[in-house]
Amino acid sequence: MASTERSSLLDNSGINDTPMLNAREAFEGANADASRMYHEVKSAKEGHKSEGGFLKPVIFGGLDGILTSFAIVAGAAGGKLSPEVVLILGFSNILADALSMGVGEFLSSKANNEWILSERRREEWELESYPEGEIKEMVEIYESKGMSRDDAVLVIQTMAKYKDLFVDVMMSQELELQVPEENHVTESMKEGFVMFCSFACFGAMPLLGYVLIPVLFPGLGPDILFWSACCITGVVLFCMGVVKSFFTTQHGFYTGMETLLLGGACATVAYSVGQLVEHGLGYSEDV
Fold first, then answer.
1. Can you tell me the distance from the alpha carbon of 169 to that of 125, in angstroms, rounded to the nearest whole number?
2. How many CA atoms lie within 13 A of 161 on its CB side?
3. pLDDT value at 222 more than 60
4. At 17, is the secondary structure helix, strand, or coil?
5. HSE-up of residue 180 (Cα within 13 Å, Cβ side)
6. Residue 11 scores a pLDDT above 70
7. What is the pTM (predicted TM-score) of this model?
8. 148 dihedral zone (left: phi>0; alpha: psi -120 to 50; beta)
9. 232-249 pLDDT, tens per residue?
10. Nearest-angstrom CA–CA distance, 108 and 189
């Protein structure tokens, strides 16, 4: 009977009982009954998106790459430079910046993790040296979050029996720091590599028009090449925003338009600066 009721409730929730479509879709659909039933099924997976760990380097690297590349294209177009110059400046800059961003992401992530681990060692030493003081601090923190003193004392004294657990909780609640995994150096290397690939791949997008269109349509002028770069950049920016929405609760159209408008504003500034410099210097490739 209970099994029948459970199946009926899951069917009525409009969510398929599959490994990928479960508690997350219940959350997104605000279906509390389905969420409760999924948690009651021991084999159910909640569907948390662990891929979000690389969301920052992918989005940050991709956005930085495509805007940096398009800024070069827009600035060169505003300055009336030839397509050959655009390609030379674009690809050389993208490769150099991608390497710089990848290495910078690795070093900054590694340094941040090492600092957090040093803080954890300090908390371990303080707990060993003066456990009463650390317990008192944690009790006060839990009281500030709305817990009664008796409950806070009970919870903290229970957790204090388990040293590693208590230190991690202190790191989270007292210092608001997330302790990295033991293989944090490897993870930092992965983040750096993802940043490099994202920057290089997305950064090459605005230059594709300057590479492919002259091969397919040899007679087209620089203005057409520039507008093709604008179109490619706009589509990619919008798609990046849509992909970002998969990891948030925002609608894909809004995140896509947000990314497109912000990227377009940066490109407009680059193009305007290029025109100002060209007019100010009176530069022309024909001179």
1. 15
2. 5
3. yes
4. coil
5. 19
6. no
7. 0.70
8. beta
9. 888 888 988 888 777 677
10. 11
